[in-house]
Structures are given as structure tokens and as C-alpha cells.
Design a protein that fits this description.
With 495 residues, the chain is of the alpha/beta class. The protein has a domain at 4-240: Nucleotidyltransferase, domain 5. The protein contains 16 helices and 22 strands. It has helices spanning 48-62, 106-114, 118-125, 134-144, 148-154, 162-170, 180-183, 198-204, 226-229, 241-248, 307-314, 325-330, 369-395, 412-422, 434-446, 472-487; strands spanning 4-10, 14-20, 26-33, 45-46, 71-78, 84-87, 97-98, 157-160, 177-179, 189-190, 195-196, 213-215, 235-240, 257-261, 265-272, 283-288, 294-302, 339-341, 359-361, 401-405, 425-429, 462-466. Strands 16-17-15-14-20-21-22 form a seven-stranded mixed sheet. It has a five-stranded mixed sheet with strand order 3-2-1-5-13. The chain starts with a strand and ends in an 8-residue tail after the last helix.
Length: 495
């Protein structure tokens, strides 16, 4: 009997690899950051070779004192829209990975919008035209790298999000694959047909030859090459990080929601087999059901969530580590009227303002660093409030609970403030690494490590819940200040 499932969580700032046992407990964990590359203002890149090298290093670390034969399967969760294009013959990328946060294609997106393509893209993909997604990033590479388009047309180039890039290397070039959840974030995938859309590919000038084959999230994605870990291990679970977290929260029923507090904040709600077209600035996208088959969900994305804490640490030098923000925030009774809108790379849902930039308002002579730290944490909760409100309007119902996960969900101050602002219960699981857990469950289900999704219900436990603790008057006053402040950052009207 195999003992473990290995999960690779390829995030925006680093790679995490975990081993899970049959009770979905973390047996071993290893992590390493990789470099963030900023060639120009609002441009963000990663080195795909560094990502692969980091993954290999961590794989060797995780199997120290572990027999690789005991690993039943591998699951891969990943930052989704980040775009890699490489030469099929050499496996060398022709350009750095363009990260989901990167705004270099904003002008192209505005051109597409001006040309009247908004409705076409939204009706087919469930997405809005925004530099966030992969399609315009592929277009940029093909139009800015010498001979790239001709090579792609010949079939010499391959595109992939980070999952595809890792699968390609893990299988030693044998598998060029992705899953429906990742494909649905590219702006070139038809969420009704569940396949690449030839009309959108033509509009963006992307040859179909460079695209990976699409599979269900719990499926056979190939075997790792023996040179990697000494044995062949099936890759059998793949999902975009946010859909994987939804799965890891066991949100299998229609109406169930989760919010992941990572670099950004991402809220997904399961809408089942029914496609809901948002009227409130959200996205319609693909998640997966209990068996890994594609279903629909609606999603709201905050670009800068936990990254605002990194900003406090790395740029402002106000803190040494993220953990201390909880105590610092509690050291003052309030922000003293300070609000921060961390629109460092524009605003995501429900505003979708690519050109918006950050603002700090309400500063007085009495403002100190603790107020700024507290305002930064509160900014995360306010942005999630905007998402939650939009989702409830689209669903036509009011949820009484929000399931949370991700690194920043460990901050008790933030979670309590989130409960206060939303006026609902917040539920945090024992294992907040639900992104990795989700693909571990999908991978294990595919190879019979777990026989049924029903097995999961007895092994996923709640760590802590947070109930609202402020009155409606105070809540309204706080929200009024937030709405006034964010309105100052907007460069175009919300639809």
C-alpha cells in the first residue's frame, strides 16, 4: 500500500511541496522562494528555468528519508494566468514567464475593448478583457520576440501556464497538458464548449498548435521521468490554485464559497452545472466537482491581498515579518481614520480598473506606523467585502458562513475584522494549505488512494471560527469610509 500523496503548490512568490498521508495530514513540507523580476513599472516576470530548478531542488528535499516508491501520485496546483512559451525541441523558454499581475498588455486590452470585442470574449470565456489573463500575454510574446509567431505556426513553440510547464519537465517532454480550471483562465477557452475557441485565437493571433491538450482535474497527466526521483510516479491531479483551494475546502455543493488569502485574495462560489453570468463585476469560470469533472463557479479576484504585508516589510520597512502584524494592529484601537487602497497593480473585481493606483487617505500628525499596519490589514478585509457583496448579489442569496484559507488567514486580527465587516461567521480549517490539499485529494482520488470523495469528510477539520463582534452603526461608518476612499482611486466607472 502506498503511503503518501505529493502535492506541488507553485505559487506567485515560491514553491511549496508537501507530503500527505491517508488522513490528509501533512507529513513533510518544504518551501523555497524564487525571484520576482520587474523590468519596468507594472511589469512582473518570473524565470521559468528557476521555477523548474526550484521545484527539482524541493522534490529531492522532500524525499530525503522517504522511499519514493511509497508515493502514490503527484498533484500540481499553480498560479494560474502566468504565461510561459518555450521551444518544444530544446525546452528552453523564449522569454521569461509573464506573471498574472503584469500590466504590460493593458494597451492591447484597451484596443480590444475599443474594437467592440468585450461582449464576445465575456460570452465565450466568462471573463472580461483584462491584462490579468493569459491570452494577451501570449499575444505579446508572439509579437515581441523575433520569429516567435512563425515558430508557433510551425508547431515549434508550446504555451502553458505553470502547471503545464512543470508537467512538461516532470515527464521529460512527453506530456503537454493542462486541466479545465487552468484553461478557463486564459481568455481563449470556451466555457460552454469546454475547449479552445478558434475565433478568439484568431482575434489574438495565437496558433492553436502551441496549446496543450485539456483534461479533467483528476486524470492521468503522465508519469514522472525516472531521472527526477528515481521512479516513475503518476501525475494525476491538476488544478488552478483557487479552484484547488475550493476543492480542498470540500465546497462540492452549489452555493458554497471560499476565500483564499494569499498574495492576492480570491473568492470562489460553486454554482454547479449552471452557468451564472455576473451582473456585478465578477467572472464566470470553471471549477471541478467532487470527482474532478468541470463545473461552473463565479469568482472575484483581489490583486493585492497578502502582498500589502510584503510591502510593509520590504519597501516601508515597518515590520520584520508578517506574523507581528496581528499584535501591532491590536496595539491601537483603530486606524485613526486612515484607509489604504493597495491598488499597486490596478484593481481587480468588482472594479476592473487596470489604471487605478494605490492611495493612503486620512493621515494626520497623529498617524503612526501601527495605524498604517492596521489599515493595511483592514484593506484586505474591505476588498474581500466588495467581492462577497458582489457574489451575494449574483447568487440572489445571503451566505451565513465563509470558509477561508491561505497564509494571511492565520492572522486572527484580520479574520476577526473580516467577520465584523461581512457580518457573518468565518471558518478556518486546521490545514490552511488547502490549495495543496485540494490537488492532493484530486490526485489521490484518481489513483484509488482514496476511494470516494466521501472519505474526505472525516479527515478535514475546522481549526477556529470567528463571529461578528461590532454593531451595525460602527460597521456602516467603517464601510462608508472605505467606499469614499476607493472611489478616489478609480479611473473609470464601475459597470
Amino acid at each position: 500500500m502506498k503511503k503518501y500523496i505529493l502535492a506541488i503548490d507553485a505559487g506567485t512568490t515560491g514553491i511549496t511541496i508537501l507530503l500527505f498521508d491517508n488522513n490528509a495530514k501533512i507529513v513533510k513540507r518544504t518551501y523555497s522562494e524564487f525571484n520576482q523580476i520587474y523590468p519596468k513599472p507594472s511589469w512582473v516576470e518570473h524565470d521559468p528555468i528557476e521555477i523548474w530548478d526550484t521545484t527539482q531542488k524541493l522534490l529531492h528535499e522532500i524525499i530525503e528519508n522517504i522511499d519514493p516508491e511509497s508515493i502514490a501520485s503527484i498533484g500540481i496546483a499553480n498560479q494560474r494566468e502566468t504565461t510561459v512559451v518555450w521551444n518544444r525541441l530544446t525546452s528552453i523558454p523564449i522569454y521569461n514567464a509573464i506573471v498574472w499581475q503584469c500590466k504590460r498588455t493593458s494597451k492591447k486590452c484597451e484596443e480590444l475593448i475599443s474594437s467592440g470585442y468585450s461582449d464576445k470574449f465575456q460570452s465565450k470565456t466568462g471573463l472580461i478583457i483584462d491584462s490579468y489573463f493569459s491570452g494577451t500575454k501570449i499575444n505579446w510574446i508572439l509579437n515581441n520576440i523575433t520569429n516567435a509567431y512563425d515558430m508557433a505556426k510551425r508547431g515549434d513553440l508550446a504555451f502553458g501556464t505553470i502547471d503545464t510547464w512543470l508537467i512538461w519537465n516532470l515527464t521529460h517532454r512527453k506530456s503537454h497538458l493542462t486541466d479545465h480550471t487552468n484553461a478557463s483562465r486564459t481568455l481563449i477557452y470556451n466555457i460552454d464548449d469546454k475547449n479552445w475557441d478558434t475565433e478568439l485565437l484568431e482575434i489574438l493571433g495565437i496558433p492553436i498548435q502551441m496549446l496543450p491538450k485539456i483534461k479533467n482535474s483528476s486524470a492521468d497527466f503522465g508519469l514522472t521521468n525516472k531521472s527526477i526521483l528515481g521512479v516513475e510516479i503518476p501525475i494525476s491531479g491538476v488544478a488552478g490554485d483557487q479552484q484547488s483551494a475550493l476543492y480542498g475546502q470540500l465546497a462540492f455543493e452549489k452555493g458554497m464559497s471560499k476565500c483564499t488569502y494569499g498574495t492576492g485574495c480570491f473568492m470562489l462560489t460553486n454554482t454547479g452545472t449552471n452557468r451564472i453570468n455576473s451582473q456585478n463585476g465578477l467572472l464566470t469560470t470553471i471549477a471541478c466537482d467532487a470527482w474532478g469533472n468541470p463545473i461552473y463557479s463565479i469568482e472575484g479576484s483581489v490583486f493585492i491581498g497578502g502582498a500589502v504585508i510584503q510591502w510593509l516589510r520590504d519597501e516601508l520597512k515597518l515590520i520584520d515579518n508578517a506574523a507581528e502584524t496581528d499584535q501591532i494592529a491590536r496595539s491601537v484601537d483603530s486606524t485613526n481614520g486612515v484607509y489604504i487602497v493597495p491598488a499597486f497593480t490596478g484593481l481587480g473585481a468588482p472594479y476592473w480598473d487596470m489604471n487605478s493606483r494605490g492611495i493612503i487617505s486620512g493621515i494626520t500628525r497623529g498617524t503612526n506606523s501601527s495605524h498604517l499596519v492596521r489599515a493595511s490589514l483592514e484593506s484586505i478585509a474591505y476588498q474581500v467585502y466588495d467581492l462577497f457583496t458582489a457574489i451575494q448579489l449574483d447568487m440572489g442569496s445571503q451566505s451565513s458562513i465563509l470558509q477561508v484559507d491561505g497564509g494571511a488567514s492565520q492572522n486572527d486580527f484580520l479574520m476577526q475584522f473580516q467577520a465584523d465587516i461581512l457580518n457573518i461567521k468565518i471558518s478556518r480549517p486546521e490545514n490552511i494549505e488547502t490549495t495543496a490539499l485540494g490537488v492532493a485529494l484530486l490526485a489521490g482520488l484518481s489513483v484509488g488512494f482514496w476511494t470516494s470523495p466521501n472519505d474526505f469528510k472525516n479527515i478535514i477539520k475546522i481549526n477556529k471560527s470567528f463571529a461578528p463582534s461590532i454593531n451595525s452603526k460602527n460597521r456602516s461608518l467603517l464601510l462608508s469610509g472605505w467606499k469614499e476612499t476607493i472611489s478616489k482611486t478609480l479611473t473609470r466607472k464601475k459597470k
